[in-house]
Amino acid sequence: MIDHADDLASVQAATERLLHAVGTLDNAAVTQSSRLPGWTLGHVLTHLARNADALVNVLEGRPMYASAEARDADIEAGAARPLDEQLADVRESAERFRAAGAAPADWSRTVALRNGVTDRAERVPFRRWIEVELHHVDLGTGYELEDLPADFTEREIAFLAARFGGHPDVPATTLSDTDGRTWTTGGGADGGPVTVEGTPADLLGWLAGRRDGGALSVKGGDLPKLPPL
Fold first, then answer.
1. What residue ranges carry the coiled-coil annotation (predicted)?
2. Are 161 and 185 spatial neighbours (Cβ–Cβ below 8 Å)?
């Protein structure tokens, strides 16, 4: 059962962890490469700020972004700013998202995201939590998938397994972690059933496109090739 208020608190805690970690860096760090191809740390931080504002738009009934081109242009325009400006932007946009989440609302309503995707409003805080946690890892400042809160990792594996469920490029696949939990995904492509086993962090890394799956064990076939998120 989704508790949007609890998720909003988790977003705030994750944001504080990220701001504390990035606050120890110097201005030169914003031009260093992140773990995302073609993006510096400045690109990641700017994206996090603009994503917070975009999700405010979602909660308040506006289009998430004016356009895909405007989204990309905003990230590029802000990427080279000094670190103190980046941190202030992330902090202030996070506060705008917190305020939007605290406003009285019908959390059961359907909201529109990007590319025709819709979801219940109550799931928006978790989507923001995903952005903050995974992009903190993408910064490459020492925060790893193994450092993610255990409840977040379990929910994100389930979220991504559902996202790939029935996908035409993914065979029927069972995911199994070292804590004894299982999920099913895929099923739209020929082949399978395949069983993929590993630690929660390695399963999440593979599903989220952050690891190549080399640390996972596979039974019943080859490791499925997942489409990009």
1. none
2. yes
